[in-house]
Write a structure and sequence with these properties.
- The protein has 29 helices and 18 strands.
- The protein is of the alpha/beta class and 673 residues long.
- It has a seven-stranded mixed beta sheet with strand order 4-5-6-7-11-12-17, with helices on one face.
């Protein structure tokens, strides 16, 4: 795991300096404390930077940027290729000569030369973001892994193309303006993150998951998607043909376990100590169980709890799993004071607002692992999304089933004016009238009902908190300058258009795809890569540790996308097929316990002294003061109502706090100072 960056001066009037490349690296020191490298072309048109967190092949031979024997390729790379040894053997058989002992980076160099970028990414198993400068073709190629575990951002400024693993590296170039993306704000409120390729910075974009981008010598850029989480790719259709439903269920449960075992085994590839984050839930316990089966030493496990609000603690369950599998267990407890002491650093680590309060406990458990001598951890992200592990999934499935396409749907749509009046008269995110009004609005607009697992603000909330007349969308908000990079729906003012575009993609791929498949695909396109995986990447890397995600092995994802709804959830049972697969692997007590979810007591913290401090921070921000885009009166009422206990506004307040704190840190720097 590392940090990558680079500059390509495609205008003849510009160039790249060594000092600039050093600044790119210095901005991401946390991503690679074990080594630093730069490469600058002789004509000073192209420069690559690299920060190294040494995981595989710790020798200096594996340092980056890396080239080949004739120096026709220059590469900077972040991630891990789990099948690099197999690919190395294949390349050696074709005559390629390797200089390193077992560096996965060198496999990318030779793989690109042998197969081209498309043939290379097709063969890769892992997580990665890399950039290749092809000296002969004078082409810069940038790739983001299939699911989007690793990030890469880019912009154009002053006749140059600039990219990096983190936005803060790009911002070291003073030619890059710092401005709010007016188009992204409403989407951020809807989804707690800006949808790719947008970021909250105007003119700075992120390459979506599963994409290849190529920039030619004249600056012309084009992108294409090479992978998507869609049905029809698992390769099991012949094996299940003609099987009864019980036989299919048995097949899928066994195949899930087999592919998960392979995925976890792959991710134990390391030349440094590794461990696992253990919550005591199904996903982390499965990681522990299968790692313990493979490892000859006790697995190191790490758990976090809260000392001030213990109702969210899962420490007892984690302890039971740790004892069951005889792990080397480590535990930490934090409180509101710890959170406040970390908040400023959190805003810096995030780059753009990632409004998930799980970032707070994630930081402290990551630091615990690092302080315990561990550099690599396995985490459970992606399981709930693939296997429908949230109650909210079941709520929307029931809603979809009950509404169908008939009378109830029509009735709800027709009742929208009445429901709107009731929602305004009796507001609150838990209000049945607000919920019904939002659903009726989606029905009338022809939108999908499910907006994802992190749908924070509904339309009525955006209307209340956002002064839309004070927002200034600009063509630069969506002008990526990259041909083939789909921006149409992300450029819409209606977040529902984004979700609808995902659903159309599934329908185009498989006209018989069920509603749960569409829901899960939407999560793979938005919430998973841009919220959940970015919180993992940004927070773990801020402590210089690498997080690996076995549930997001693409071969397991391909399988899960081919499991029909009836087999996956059997009515409305969350994670039903995964639970079946894990019977006998982890204790039944863990499988059958009520899901709590990894969380933080933000609602309680916001009712304490921190709540008044947070209110001052939000109301003092330039986004809120003097007719800014945020409605100060509505925000103040929300803080008052939350503090008094009249309403639980924690989610909305945390989302707004992250937005204003981000703005003060990165945009309005005079205010931050």
């Amino acid at each position: 795991m590392c940090g990558i960056a680079g500059i390509f001066a495609f205008s003849s009037s510009t160039h790249v300096s060594e000092e600039e490349l050093v600044r790119l690296n210095d901005a991401m020191e946390h991503r690679g404390p074990d080594g630093v490298g730069t490469w600058l072309s002789k004509d000073k048109r192209v420069g690559l930077s690299h920060r190294r967190l040494a995981i595989v092949d710790l020798t200096d031979d594996a340092k980056q940027p890396m080239t080949d024997a004739d120096e026709s390729i220059q590469l900077t790379y972040n991630g891990e290729i789990y099948n690099h040894l197999e690919l190395r053997k294949e390349l050696e058989a074709k005559g390629h000569k390797f200089r390193t002992d077992h560096s996965d980076t060198e496999v990318l160099v030779h793989g690109y030369k042998e197969w081209g970028v498309d043939g290379l990414v097709e063969r890769l198993i892992g997580m990665f973001a890399f950039a290749i400068w092809d000296v002969r073709a004078e082409r810069l190629t940038i790739v983001r892994d299939r699911v989007g575990i690793k990030p890469v951002y880019f912009t154009r400024a002053g006749g140059r193309f600039i990219f990096g693993s983190e936005i803060k590296a790009i911002l070291t170039d003073k030619a890059v303006p710092r401005a709010v993306n007016g188009t992204a704000i409403a989407h951020y409120l809807s989804f707690m993150i800006s949808p790719a390729p947008l970021t909250m910075f105007r003119g700075i974009f992120k390459l979506p998951a599963g994409h290849i981008m190529e920039i030619e010598a004249n600056g012309h850029a084009r992108a294409r998607r090479y992978w998507d989480a869609l049905p029809g790719k698992s390769g099991v259709s012949e094996e299940i043909a003609g099987l009864s439903e019980p036989a299919k269920r048995d097949f899928f449960s066994k195949e899930i376990l087999r592919r998960l075992e392979v995925a976890i085994d792959r991710r134990m590839m390391s030349d440094v100590p590794f461990g696992v984050f253990l919550s005591g839930g199904i996903d982390s316990s499965a990681n522990v169980a299968l790692m313990s089966k493979i490892s000859s030493q006790p697995v190191k496990t790490f758990t976090i709890g809260f000392s001030d609000h213990t109702h969210l603690n899962e420490l007892d369950y984690a302890d039971k799993v740790a004892k069951h599998f005889n792990t080397d267990h480590h535990e930490i407890r934090v409180n509101g004071a710890d959170m406040r002491g970390y908040l400023d650093d959190l805003i810096v680590s995030q780059d753009e607002p990632i409004s998930d309060w799980v970032c707070v406990p994630l930081y402290f458990v990551s630091k615990l692992a690092k302080d315990s001598g561990v550099t690599v951890v396995q985490v459970g992200e992606g399981s709930d999304e693939q296997f429908a592990g949230y109650d909210s999934y079941m709520k929307y499935l029931k809603l979809h089933d009950n509404m169908g396409s008939g009378a109830l749907r029509s009735m709800l749509g027709a009742a929208s004016p009445l429901l709107g009046a009731m929602a305004h008269a009796m507001p609150g995110r838990r209000s049945v009238f607000e919920q019904a009004y939002e659903i009726s609005r989606r029905v009338n607009l022809g939108h999908e009902l499910f907006y994802g697992g992190s749908n924070a603000f509904w339309a009525i909330h955006v209307e209340k908190y956002l002064n839309s007349s004070n927002i200034a969308p600009d063509p630069a908000d969506i002008d990526t300058g990259v041909e083939g990079l789909d921006i149409t729906d992300a450029g819409s003012s209606d977040s529902g258009d984004i979700i609808d575009s995902f659903a159309r993609t599934v329908t185009n791929a498989d006209g018989n795809a069920d509603v749960l498949t569409k829901m899960i695909h939407a999560e793979f396109r938005l919430r998973l890569p841009e919220l959940l995986l970015m919180r993992v990447d940004k927070i773990t890397m801020s402590t210089s540790i690498e997080a690996r995600v076995p549930f997001l092995d693409h071969e397991l994802v391909d399988l899960s996308m081919d499991i029909p709804r009836a087999l996956k959830v059997d009515g409305y049972k969350t994670k039903d097929i995964l639970k079946t697969a894990l019977r006998g692997v982890i204790p039944d007590e863990i499988i059958d316990r009520k899901k709590m979810g990894f969380a933080a007591p933000a609602a309680e913290w916001l009712r304490e002294d921190f709540g008044r401090e947070a209110e001052g921070m939000v109301l003092g921000s330039a986004l809120t003061r003097n007719g800014g885009p945020l409605n100060a009166d509505a925000i103040k009422r929300a803080f008052d109502d939350h503090r008094s206990g009249r309403k639980d506004n924690a989610l909305h307040l945390w989302v707004i706090l992250n937005l204003t704190a981000w703005h003060d840190q990165w945009i309005d720097q005079s205010h931050a100072a």
